[in-house]
UniProtKB/TrEMBL annotation:
Pfam families: adh_short_C2 (PF13561). InterPro entries: KR_dom, NAD(P)-bd_dom_sf, SDR_fam. The lineage of its organism: Bacteria, Pseudomonadati, Pseudomonadota, Alphaproteobacteria, Sphingomonadales. Its EC number is 1.1.1.378. The keyword Plastid does not apply. It catalyses: L-rhamnofuranose + NADP(+) = L-rhamnono-1,4-lactone + NADPH + H(+); L-rhamnofuranose + NAD(+) = L-rhamnono-1,4-lactone + NADH + H(+). SMART domains: PKS_KR (SM00822). This is L-rhamnose 1-dehydrogenase (NAD(P)(+)). One of its GO terms (biological process) is rhamnose catabolic process. Pathway: Carbohydrate degradation; L-rhamnose degradation. It is an enzyme of class 1 (oxidoreductase). Belongs to the short-chain dehydrogenases/reductases (SDR) family. NCBIfam families: PRK07231.1 (NF005559). One of its GO terms (molecular function) is oxidoreductase activity, acting on the CH-OH group of donors, NAD or NADP as acceptor.
Length: 254
């Protein structure tokens, strides 16, 4: 069953990792896709090519989500290409691991600006367009298990993910009257570029794996079903929800 037939899906940070898997997964479900990306033209071009090979349309728009003007520009380009938007997957994020006591101010500022402010601007720009269209829509924000638990080297990061989770709850209330649903996914540990260096530490990787009842860390593809589900009409009565996608890591205290 194709759950996003004829829909236009926007994905931020869509050229790699979870965003890329979500973009291609949405296309497999019948969507045309616009991705925002930060830097690598090659990866964005190859994502577009993969989507086109599936018989769907795709565009890639470069832009820093921390810049408030990027969101409006992204939505404008998508509407110019596809005529409308139906789903925004707010995914772009960074996690530069660093100790707390000597955390540079610039690292804190940048992490907040990309992860939280960027999500805010993107969700706002997308939903302004959805309200104008008058036919509802869906937002899926990529928060994290880190919205619920801390990390010694993530003191600047975990508050942004709690913020994204909270943003979806408030936006769900603000936008329910427009039939715009706002939900978040909370990935556990998914093997991507964001944690490649951190998980190169064998001991850390093994400890994360052993905390996961399903016995393995996640792959970007593990996020596709939950994101597509929340974006689709299958979740027509789901809003303000947060879906843990973590192989059971969160509930495993002992
Ligand atoms: N990999 C994991 O274990 C988990 C990841 N997440 C979240 O998933 C999201 C995606 O990350 P991953 O796919 O894991 O890593 P990734 O590094 O492959 O993807 C992050 C994407 O965001 C883009 N990006 C970064 N800064 C940007 C900016 N200023 N403007 C536009 N794009 C920007 C990057 O270029 C990249 O494509 C992030 O929000 C991350 O916090 C959440 C929980 C766990
Ligand atoms: C980057 C981390 O490895 C990853 O991101 C998160 O949000 C979780 O803390 C994961 O472990």
């Amino acid at each position: 069953m194709r759950l996003l037939e004829g829909k236009t899906v926007l994905v931020t940070g869509g050229s790699t990792g979870i965003g890329r898997a979500a973009a291609i997964g949405a296309a497999r479900h019948g969507a045309n896709v616009a991705i925002n990306y930060a830097s690598s033209d090659d990866k964005a071009t190859s994502c577009v090519a993969e989507i086109e090979a599936l018989g769907q349309k795709a565009i890639a728009i470069k832009g820093d989500v921390a810049d408030p003007t990027t969101a409006g520009d992204f939505v404008k380009h998508a509407v110019a290409e596809f005529g409308r938007i139906d789903v925004m997957v707010s995914n772009a994020g960074i996690c530069p691991f660093h100790a707390f006591l000597d955390m540079p101010v610039e690292t804190v500022d940048r992490t907040f600006k990309v992860n939280l402010h960027g999500a805010y601007y993107m969700v706002q720009a997308a939903t302004r367009q959805m309200v104008e269209q008058g036919e509802g829509g869906a937002i899926v924000a990529v928060s994290s298990i880190s919205a619920l638990v801390g990390g010694e080297f993530q003191t600047h990061y975990t508050p942004t993910k709690a913020g994204v989770h909270s943003l979806m709850q408030s936006a769900a209330i603000a936008l329910g009257k427009h039939n715009i649903r706002c939900n978040s996914v909370l990935p556990g540990t998914i093997l991507t570029e964001i944690n490649k260096a951190d998980l190169a530490n064998e001991e850390k990787r093994r400890s994360m794996e052993s905390r996961t009842p399903l016995g393995r860390l996640g792959e970007p593809e593990d996020m596709v079903g939950p994101i597509v589900f929340l974006a689709s009409e299958m979740a027509a009565y789901v809003t303000g929800a947060a879906l843990l996608v973590d192989g059971g890591m969160f509930v495993n205290l002992q």
